[in-house]
């Protein structure tokens, strides 16, 4: 146990406040920091807890995967009322795809938090998704289902889970909006700039104007995502005017 | 919507109080009975809710499956500290095996609650497990994660999830106890009798005595399960005397 404490103490000194980083990433104060320490410890360090059990992120990854599955299932159950069991299963597997989880972990910069005996360059691409799952598992252990769900809502569902996109009915809200503007002879402008604010992670903001009037704002971890988000918001503003059918 | 209400009203008249049955099975008062009505409606009736979406147990089955996965994962995470991700995954799949879920649904007599346009005899064996999953989904929708976890603890984890058995270290606590009694020249007696009490489901009770002294009691939905449960309790009473190793 001493070994674990020392490692994270020295990390605090070297890399800044671990507690503060976790708080920024999760959006709430951690209660039991040890859960997060476990979530960011790689097996290469060979650490054990006081019971002599392995102390690394792999078990939390299992737990986080299960919690993600449950929270996403509950969300899709509510949002896709017409889909049967097979359809919901298919949609969930799109949301929690390995590729998607890797993107989530990469966006949050989780690899920066890892403690390992091997260099970061040696990790495969799946490390990002694995750490993301482990983080969800740590949140569940630390604060329970409600907080895990809240985190998944904020970091997975709100920015990424778009029923129309999952169903392939809309590929890109930005294209949809641009097509509509061109057809309707309206001018449009995506004013996009870096705006990381208090965030640990790089962020971008967008102000979207149509015919010189600002219609939507958005903020995300890449220019592309921020513009897509703003276009989606504008789409909902103009919902009656922009009809999906006309582009299908 | 009218159609749904009528069907369940007529069930109430015919089969007794649906609310009461759900309360007995779950152990708490349902808040939104419609969730449970959905969980026990078969697609053969072709019912729809007021939004025109299918109203049958299949979607709740998807939700319940996800909640079972999450709750069992959390339990194994806590109980099997030495197991890595792959090991935990393997153990979970034993607990939520199709065969096991069918047993759970059958024990609770869930098929008696179903409303379908086809005769009960025509359902395959998996209907029991499907209804069990749908019931878990209904509990989550009605009362949230906490109640779903409580139900899973009472109906799945407490009576069935035995780490030593899952790991194949103990096949049967009853055999273990009998072997020990024979070796130690002790007499034993399983006094087993039907004892359904207030339960909707048939139950059995066991009083287990060793050398004429009662050492454990148990109650379950079959003689075999009740005796196994009592033997397990006795095993923990005699833990220092009965050593697993001596039988391996």
UniProtKB/TrEMBL annotation, chains A, B:
Catalytic reaction list: Endonucleolytic cleavage to 5'-phosphomonoester
An annotated GO cellular component of this protein is:
cytoplasm
Keyword tRNA-binding tagged: no
Alphabetized, the UniProt keywords read: Cytoplasm, Endonuclease, Hydrolase, Magnesium, Metal-binding, mRNA processing, Nuclease, RNA-binding, rRNA processing, rRNA-binding, tRNA processing
Family annotation (InterPro entries): dsRBD_dom (IPR014720), RNase_III (IPR011907), RNase_III_dom (IPR000999), RNase_III_sf (IPR036389)
Q: Which residues form a coiled coil?
A: none
- Write down the CDD domains for this protein, in alphabetical order: RIBOc (cd00593)
**Where in the sequence is the active site?**
65, 133
Sites where the protein binds Mg(2+): 61, 130, 133
> What assembly does the database describe for this protein?
Homodimer.
Similarity annotation: Belongs to the ribonuclease III family.
> What job does this protein perform?
Digests double-stranded RNA. Involved in the processing of primary rRNA transcript to yield the immediate precursors to the large and small rRNAs (23S and 16S). Processes some mRNAs, and tRNAs when they are encoded in the rRNA operon. Processes pre-crRNA and tracrRNA of type II CRISPR loci if present in the organism.
Q: What is this protein called?
A: Ribonuclease 3
Q: Which organism is it from?
A: Leeuwenhoekiella nanhaiensis
Taxonomy-wise, where does this protein's organism fall, top ranks first? Bacteria, Pseudomonadati, Bacteroidota, Flavobacteriia, Flavobacteriales
